[in-house]
Each structure stands twice: as structure tokens, then as C-alpha cells.
Amino acid sequence: MGAIAVTNLPAWSVPRPIAKVAQPYLNATGLDQRWNMFAPAPRTEILYLEARVEFADGHVTVWRPPTGDPLLGGYRDAHWRKFVEHAVVRPGNSDAWPQLWDPLARYVASQETHEGSRPVSVTLVKRSAFELPPGGRGPDRTPFREVPYYTLRLP
Asked: pTM of the entire structure?
């Protein structure tokens, strides 16, 4: 708890040696995030990743990043959400990492099977909507849009 408190104090108020002692504990527990990551403007885009896997017989399955494991779910889910932020294409966003697309599509292909059949293509699809300001009389978000942005063809 002390390590979390130290790293959430303003940088000018914590002597550097104390911060250096606290950091390994935060790294080991995955608690090395700071609250200022949400400020000054939290993200308003609701973002999901799907991979559409097509098989030779025309059958299509949809893969989504795993969620909800009762033991390590929160930890794993947070890492997948961060991965999704970088693995989807977002116009005007320099955080997108296209070098992730091919390995992600290959990973999905390795995870998906259909009655012993291998996939022939994997298409990565961004699903997104925007949260609307609170207090309105209408919906709390825009409709979801789907944008396919990368297709891997497999032999």
C-alpha cells in the first residue's frame, strides 16, 4: 500500500530514492499505473476487437479476446484491453501498432478450429461507439460501427 501511495503523490514531493525502492513492488504486482493516466481527458470511445475466422467450407466463427476468468480475470482482462487499444486502427491515433495485426491474426487462427478444419482467412474488425455527455434525454452512446481493417489469408 505504501508503494501505491508513494507513486500517486506528485513527482516533486517524493524523493527519488524512495520512488526507486517502491517501483519493483509495483512492477511485480502489476500495480504500476498512476491515476493521472485518466486525466485530463478520459477516452470517450468504447472499443472492441473481433476476429472473423473463415473456413474452407464457408463457415465463419467470431473470436473475441478472452474475459472473465474467475481467478486472474481482472489482471488478464486489463492486459487484453490495453492490447486492443494498440491493435485496432483508429484514425488520427498514433497509438495503433500495425505490426501487431499479422501476429494477432495468426494467433487467432491457431485458436480457432471448426470440426477439424483449418481457417483460410482471419479478418480483424474494430467495433466502436462513442459515449455521449451525461444528462441528455437520448441514448448514452452512439450506435456501434464495425470496421474491418486487416485480413490474413492462410494457405
From this structure: 0.68
